[in-house]
Amino acid sequence: MIEPFVVNKLTANGESCAHLLAKSGSKDTMEVTRYFLKSGGRANSVTNVPNGANPTALAINVMRNNYDVVELMLEGSVKTDVKFRNENNNEVTVMDLAFQRAAGKPKESPEYMMLALLDQYDAVAMSGQKFVRPVVAVPLPVPVPVQVPVPEPVVLVAEPLVDEVEKTVDEKIEM
């Protein structure tokens, strides 16, 4: 392990190892980020670039659609509510950034998936905008026709019965 004071050293622009790693685009970003976090690296800092964008390392990974690295950082308790300036010099959080990037994109896009991931970790947008998970339509089961046996129609033959009743009534009257 590297001592925390080494992994937390900053460049002249205030970039931490996490910032440099996120910007590098290295294929080893995941493993090095894991090592960085285990070594006590601070990934919540913002750069000190005057009058310009100063994203957090998490924000840089969101911009680069590094889904696995973002998930690793979130699992490592990297804060999502740290405010930074975006490229328009507006103060935002990583969730605001994700909303901006996902606007108008299909639900299958990496930007939209990133937005959903941040929402799972309760990231909050300064704008107050809320992520609404799409409702997944579950197909209802198709009813299977059931064949119910129909009984044979019962034909009541009332005439012989009526004749019998009349005969019985007549006999009773004659008595």
Summarize the structure in words:
The chain has 175 residues and is mainly α. The relative contact order is 0.10. It is 43% helix and 2% strand. Strand 1 and strand 2 (91-92) form a beta hairpin. It starts with a helix and ends with a helix.
- Proportion in helices: 40-55%
Head-to-tail CA distance between termini? 121 Å
Order of strands in the sheet with most strands? 1-2
- What is the helix tally? 8
Keywords:
175 residues, mainly alpha, two-stranded antiparallel ribbon, 8 helices, 2 strands, rod-shaped
Could you give the topology of this structure?
Elements: H1 4-7, H2 17-24, H3 29-38, H4 57-63, H5 67-75, E1 84-85, E2 91-92, H6 94-102, H7 110-120, H8 158-174
Antiparallel strand pairs: 1-2
Helix pairs in contact: 2-3, 2-4, 3-5, 4-6, 5-7, 6-7
